[in-house]
Amino acid sequence: MGAGEVWRGSGCGDRMKVVNVNNGQGNGGGGGLADSFETVAANLDASGATFTYSGDDLAEIEYANGVVKTFAYGPDGLASVTLSGAVPAGIDLVKSLQYTGGELTAIIYS
Length: 110
Prior knowledge:
With 110 residues, the chain is mainly β. It has 1 helix and 9 strands, in the order E-E-E-H-E-E-E-E-E-E. A hairpin with a 2-residue loop joins strand 6 and strand 7.
């Protein structure tokens, strides 16, 4: 476990990586599953993508390569981003955002 990382278990053998947030960016070293989620999410080609909205909120992006990015919202704003479809095996598929008093305080990959 790297500096600034906390692992929380659900009691079912699953573990979630909790990355502390400093000025909106996670801290800790590079590498790992969280970076894989971010690498996939950041390198998706939006040309030819289909955008779906729920009211004013972006709900889903379906990319031409078969990857789907789904957005969920809570009272403080964006609550999670989920990758599905043609994603690489072995990476975290959900990025959850936690807020305290309206401020982003944690990013959790699972």
